[in-house]
Write a structure and sequence with these properties.
The chain has 191 residues and is mostly beta strands. The protein has no helices and 16 strands. The protein has strands at residues 10-11, 19-20, 33-34, 42-43, 56-58, 65-66, 79-81, 88-89, 102-105, 111-112, 125-128, 134-135, 148-150, 157-158, 171-172, 180-181. Strands 2-4-6-8-10 form a five-stranded parallel beta sheet, with no helix packed on it. Strands 9-11-13-15 form a four-stranded parallel beta sheet, with no helix packed on it. Strands 12-14-16 form a three-stranded parallel beta sheet, with no helix packed on it. It starts with 9 loop residues before the first strand and ends in a 10-residue tail after the last strand. 43% of the residues are buried.
């Protein structure tokens, strides 16, 4: 739709739009301002990949699903608001968002995809809601500033290399609900 429109700075979305399509704003490197109408229910894959001027994503309260790689390499995103109602945060959703500082995953999220926050080097804390049962493989890998993780009460499994290279990780709550800890889940967590 607007893929590779490198001069596009602002997007005013209609309140009738329910879905943002695959690669809709991919490589819109000047895009810095988006209004998020309450009508948006789904963000398809790579919708905002490499939108390097975006600094925040205040997602629609009606958002139910975020496909894979939606915000990959949006290197200036510092804050994300995922509202209760969203069920799926897809693979690589925020991978490479190197300035993202914190994330609060609401209780409605049941699926947290592999690599979802991989390489978010400024991320210092993550709160994972009670709907998530699995921290997927590589989910928080290479989040070198991550200090604190608050796990939801239903976490049953922490995937392969889920927290690999989280060298600042010093505080994580362990729950009786955890049944499986996959290989190298915390390898190179030196704190």
């Amino acid at each position: 739709c607007f893929e590779n429109c490198s001069s596009l700075e602002t997007v005013q979305l209609s309140s009738k739009i329910e879905q943002i399509g695959y690669r809709a704003f991919r490589n819109c490197t000047s895009l810095s301002n988006i209004n998020w109408p309450n009508s948006i229910r789904k963000l398809e894959g790579q919708a905002f990949i490499n939108c390097t001027s975006l600094s925040k994503a205040e997602l629609s309260p009606s958002l139910e699903e975020m496909d894979g790689s939606v915000f990959v390499d949006c290197i200036n995103i510092t804050s994300v608001t995922v509202n209760d109602g969203c069920a799926i945060i897809g693979e690589n959703a925020f991978c490479g968002c190197t300035k993202l500082k914190s994330i609060n995953i609401p209780n409605s999220v049941t699926t947290l995809g592999s690599y979802a926050f991989n390489g978010c080097k400024a991320l210092t804390n993550a709160t994972i809601g009670n709907g998530v049962k699995l921290i997927s493989n590589y989910c928080f890998e290479n989040c070198s500033s991550l200090e604190t993780v608050q796990l939801g009460s239903k976490i049953e499994q922490i995937g392969y290399r889920a927290f690999r290279n989280c060298t600042s990780l010093s505080n994580i709550n362990w729950l009786n609900s955890i049944r499986k800890l996959d290989g190298q889940a915390f390898i190179s967590c030196t704190s």
